[in-house]
Design goal:
Blueprint (H helix, E strand, L loop, with lengths): L1 H13 L3 H9 L14 H5 L4 H28 L3 H17 L12 H11 L1 H18 L2 H19 L3 H17 L1 H9 L15
Helix pairs in contact: 1-4, 1-5, 2-4, 4-5, 4-6, 5-6, 5-9, 6-7, 7-8, 8-9
């Protein structure tokens, strides 16, 4: 019963779509009907409000971290720490992808996944983030960086954490990231995926 409570609570936390919440606070277009239609930080950048994109990124990361932290903390008091932690990890991620409060239309989950990984293990989160950064800096393609990080997360988790349940949970989250990026994968294969422009060179000549 306790595990079910943690899972449901995590899903509800995940259902807080910060892209939609922030867009309403800033009086911006609904991200589900603007740009790519994805309620996430990248699409919020298309509104021209970097502060709104940053708040969305932080909010989505924070909810992933909070749900897992609370499940681990309280789960340990009832002897269900491992099951509660990884059940909450998957549940909060599903909440972000399919939010109850916003018509089950959520984002792709990259920021929320990072928050989850940081709560599970700071080293796992930082190592996965490093892989994202390396690929992004080299290619300027956000989706390719996300897919690479999603591929490496279960591998890194195997070495840094171990255990069947953690690895299974990480594999589920990674598989869901691939599923949500299926249109990006098609564009990548076709060589049509967009790139972020490199920062302008401001050095003196």
């Amino acid at each position: 019963m306790f595990i079910s409570f943690f899972i449901v609570s995590a899903y509800l936390i995940g259902s807080l779509s910060f892209a939609v919440i922030v867009s309403r606070l800033f009086g911006l277009p609904d991200p589900r009907k603007h740009g790519s239609g994805n309620p996430g930080a990248t699409n919020m950048l298309r509104t021209g409000r970097k502060s709104a994109a940053l708040l969305t990124l932080v909010g989505d990361m924070a909810k992933g971290w909070l749900a897992v932290y609370l499940a681990r903390y309280f789960g340990s008091q009832y002897g269900v720490e491992i099951a509660a932690t990884y059940g909450a990890a998957v549940a909060v991620f599903l909440g972000h992808l399919y939010p109850l409060f916003f018509g089950f239309k959520g984002g792709k989950g990259v920021a929320t996944a990072l928050g989850i990984l940081l709560a599970i293990s700071p080293w796992l989160g930082l190592a996965t983030l490093a892989s994202w950064l390396v690929v992004f800096v080299l290619t300027r393609i956000s989706s390719l960086a996300a897919l690479t990080a999603a591929t490496l997360a279960p591998v890194l988790g195997t070495y840094l954490i171990g255990g069947a349940l953690p690895v299974v949970a990480l594999c589920i989250i990674s598989a869901l990231i691939f599923w949500r990026h299926r249109t990006n994968i098609r564009r990548l294969l076709a060589g049509e995926e967009g790139r972020f422009a490199k920062p302008a060179d401001t050095s003196s000549e």
